[in-house]
Hints:
alpha+beta
Amino acid sequence: MFQRKVTRKGLAALLLFSVAVSVFGGKSSVFAAGKEKYRSSYLQYVKQQQKKSQKKLYYAIINASDGKMPVLLVTTARMRDKGAVHASVYSYSGGKVVYITEMQSTGTAYPLLKKGKYIISGWHHSSQRLMVSGAKGYMESVDGFGIENAKCHKKSWMILNGKKKDLVSKNISEKKAMALDYYSNAYENGGKPIVFQKVK
């Protein structure tokens, strides 16, 4: 009797395990298929843009959003280490590739970085970070640090159809601005330069 109970419990546990694997495995498969769909759409788009512009383009597909959907970055100038200081950022929404905004650093010492869900740009006295959500971008910036007697600001805004909306700006101390410096913080805490590939 005891052996029969153990066997039934074992079968029940095995059945529950099989169901769990089926459900979560199915979700993983759906997500992987969705991710591949975005990648395919991005590659098709960037190839079309290269043909249309007749310029050599470079691209990166990275996870830099509030979810797990990848975003596309496109640049016309890649550095020797395959990084870039400027790129156009695109997302996928409503069944098509949509333009978000431009990300610009100044000088080869500040290649565009990825840290967590953010794309980050900067230079000596300012830095910006962008998070993508569907067809929208959410930008934060801090500026003015490292300049004697300059006013420092923290700004945030939403981007839709390439245009700024809902801008919020406030004055902050230089000490706080330097502490917020998105680029330095990312660089010193695991942020990685974004690697761009040739469009083939």
